[in-house]
């Protein structure tokens, strides 16, 4: 079960959350925290969060809020895709914004010396693998770069190779022209390098693929989650017979929508396969969420 039952919580005085999150809505540790907070409230148990750094820092906010009909374990909370809070701050928001029917008795144990401008590399702390495909701190930086597109199984995003979430490749892509077209966009803080590879498992297993590796040259300037939409646009322009929503497994559209927090992204993008058609929608909630978030900041 994803939510602790009454039986599990019998004789428990305090429920403690001490898990390293990666700052992206679809990574389900925060969903687990939400459900645990819900169970603690229902059973009148104190809930303690031992706060940890958000690997993406506390300044990046990207993506639309989850809409009604699209809440799920990969989009449990009405927050942007990249939400710019620590798990402790998010827990305070869950309570404060009445995301629970009944607020829990919450206590957050703050970190020392963490600042919002820090990504994980700035902390000087050792990274312990958060899950099999987040083996390094920088893996967390790339998860929002490709994670939404990755739900479709349309091209390899490096899961099954040595670069999880850091690349985009397929048998029908020409690496050099793909990299050239993406670099011509001059996306802030991002460079694309041609790559040739053969995945060990997952999408493209055993096949010779070509594509691009994503390099973040300026983390603070890069719009992480936008990158996959630019990739989808360029793929459609260079290879019009391989447009993503014309060729991806339609059985995966539901998961794509859940991770996106809306079906508008898919439906609108599929009309002309241009990021500009969805960009204002993808970004529409960011400034208002930043303003709301400040009520729950524990760090400068």
The structural class is: alpha/beta
CATH topology group of the largest domain: Aspartate Aminotransferase, domain 1
Query: Residue ranges: pLDDT <50 for 5 or more in a row?
Result: none
Q: Mean of residue pLDDT?
A: 98
The tally of strands reads 6
Q: Strand order, biggest sheet?
A: 1-2-3
Q: What is the string of SSEs from the N terminus onward? A: EHEHEHHEHEEHHHHHH
Radius of gyration: 20 Å
Compute the number of structural domains: 2
Number of helices: 11
Give the terminus-to-terminus CA distance.
37 Å
Describe the biggest sheet?
3 strands, parallel
Backbone shape: globular
Strand content: 5-15%
Topology:
Blueprint: E1 14-17, H1 29-42, E2 46-50, H2 87-96, E3 105-109, H3 120-123, H4 137-150, E4 167-170, H5 175-183, E5 190-197, E6 209-216, H6 226-238, H7 244-247, H8 253-260, H9 264-272, H10 276-283, H11 286-293
Parallel strand pairs: 1-2, 2-3
Antiparallel strand pairs: 4-6, 5-6
How would you describe this protein?
The chain is an alpha/beta fold and 300 residues long. It folds into two domains: 14-118 and 286-296, Uncharacterised protein PF07075, DUF1343 (Rossmann fold, 3-Layer(aba) Sandwich), CATH 3.40.50; 137-282, Aspartate Aminotransferase, domain 1, CATH 3.90.1150. 34% of the residues lie in helices and 11% in strands. It has eleven helices and six strands. Helix 2 (87-96) links the parallel strand 2 and strand 3 (105-109). It is globular. The two termini are 37 Å apart.
